[in-house]
Each structure stands twice: as structure tokens, then as C-alpha cells.
Design a protein that fits this description.
Helix content: 40-55%
Mean pLDDT: 86
CATH architecture: 3-Layer(aba) Sandwich
Largest sheet: 2 strands, parallel
Distance between the termini: 38 Å
Radius of gyration: 14 Å
Structural class: mainly alpha
Oligomer: single chain
Order of helices and strands: HHHEHEH
Length: about 90
């Protein structure tokens, strides 16, 4: 029997989550709506914990806006993309 981490790893190796949110119309709409909700309920300089941060599609822009973001990611591949993209923002 496979464990949850292996199942999740297999699923996310079948697609490029970062590109899905950037290049597909559904992904772009999802990103836009999610960011609208985030901005509606959070104040400037908010502290954010994003569990399951993926490749940092939300965490990195929010950090660039000045929010204090902690991103947690289970999958090594996604974490590597997040770390590479966010080098200047990682403390």
C-alpha cells in the first residue's frame, strides 16, 4: 500500500502546477479570484502561513507585497521550485 506522500508525489509529477496557474485560463482565473479573497481579508503587513504552498505561486507575490509569509511544502520538487524562485525573499 502506498502512503499519502507517495500518492501526492505521483499526482503532482503528472502536471506542472506552476505553469497551470500561469498559462491556463482556468488557472489564471483561480489565481485572480484567490488573490482577491486574500486581499479582501488580510491587512498590509499580515503574517501568512501557507501550508501546501506548492511552487510559491501565492506565497512569493504576497511576500513581495510586504507580507510576512511562511510557506510549507511537502513535495521536494515543488519546494525546490519555490526556493529557487524566492531566493531573494527567503530568510
Amino acid at each position: 500500500m502506498r502512503d499519502r506522500k507517495e500518492i501526492i508525489n505521483t499526482f503532482y509529477h503528472q502536471t506542472d502546477e506552476n505553469e497551470r496557474l500561469k498559462k491556463t485560463r482556468h488557472g489564471q482565473l483561480e489565481y485572480y479570484i484567490t488573490m482577491q479573497y486574500i486581499h479582501r481579508y488580510l491587512k498590509d503587513n499580515s503574517k501568512i502561513l501557507e501550508v501546501g504552498a506548492g511552487t510559491g505561486r501565492y506565497a512569493i507575490p504576497l511576500a513581495k507585497e510586504g507580507m510576512d509569509v511562511t510557506a510549507v511544502e511537502l513535495l521536494e520538487n515543488n519546494l525546490a521550485v519555490l526556493q529557487e524562485t524566492a531566493k531573494e525573499w527567503i530568510i
